[in-house]
């Protein structure tokens, strides 16, 4: 039996936010949360930029320094197992964060799956057809579909009788792309609520860990992080900033 197969948390159980130490969980959102809180901040030059790019929030983290050391493949660990257990952790932790914010992410506040000022993702059905979904519908659909994959022993095997299939890297990239969109939506549409909860150190650390891991194992495409000219993904700028600051590898 493999190391990670033995130690992966039983399904349905909750784990502490990665890479936090359990000291402080994000509190429940209170009545003071205001969806109309200012998203943008004016810097000295009069240029507007998102709050998550502004000091001190951009530097706020539970984990200081570079994430490289915690994402590299440990000795004697199968790379598939390492990716599987980390994808599981990112999914679980992001699910918990979104659960706290869910009451603020409604069909009225978020009628589209927005991830930047001019970028909204439609949902692509298995037939390939794109359909419109509100952000909560989109996120619920993504999370439910990922949960089904994680629960499928053929996709995420947890015992020695099952092996990872050759499709697992492609599935991991698919999951990663969808989780990135949820991170991007939360930063774009709900960062002020993260600030109200004083959860920005947790959330930044979780996202930086997610990006560093994705970089290390080639799970993310640059265009998914940054978007395209005229259709920029908001967190693409955060990714650039963290590369400048040394939080992420260049
Ligand atoms: Zn939302």
Automatic annotation (TrEMBL):
InterPro entries: MOB_kinase_act_fam, MOB_kinase_act_sf. Keywords: Metal-binding, Zinc. Residues 1-39 are annotated as: Disordered. Zn(2+) binds at residues 105, 110, 185, 190. Coiled coil: none annotated. This is Maintenance of ploidy protein mob2.
């Amino acid at each position: 039996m493999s190391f990670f197969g033995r130690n992966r948390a039983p399904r349905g159980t909750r784990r502490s936010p990665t890479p936090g130490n359990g000291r402080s969980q994000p509190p429940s959102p209170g009545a003071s949360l205001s969806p109309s809180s200012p998203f943008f901040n004016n810097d000295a030059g009069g240029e507007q930029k998102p709050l998550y790019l502004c000091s001190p929030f951009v530097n706020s983290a539970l984990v200081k320094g570079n994430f490289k050391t915690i994402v590299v493949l440990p000795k004697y660990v199968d790379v598939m197992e390492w990716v599987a257990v980390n994808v599981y952790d990112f999914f679980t932790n992001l699910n918990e964060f979104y659960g706290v914010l869910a009451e603020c992410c409604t069909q009225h506040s978020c009628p589209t799956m927005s991830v930047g000022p001019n970028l909204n993702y439609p949902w692509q059905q298995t037939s390939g057809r794109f359909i419109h979904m509100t952000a909560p519908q989109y996120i619920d659909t993504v999370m439910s579909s990922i949960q089904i994959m994680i629960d499928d022993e053929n996709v995420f095997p947890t015992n020695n009788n099952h092996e990872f299939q050759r499709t697992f890297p492609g599935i991991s990239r698919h999951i990663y792309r969808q989780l990135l969109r949820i991170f991007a939506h939360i930063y774009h549409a709900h960062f002020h609520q993260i600030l109200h909860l004083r959860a920005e150190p947790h959330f930044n650390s979780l996202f930086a860990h997610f990006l560093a891991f994705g970089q290390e194992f080639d799970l993310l495409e640059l265009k998914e992080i940054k978007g395209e000219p005229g259709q920029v993904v908001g967190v693409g700028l955060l990714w650039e900033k963290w590369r400048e600051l040394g939080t992420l590898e260049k």
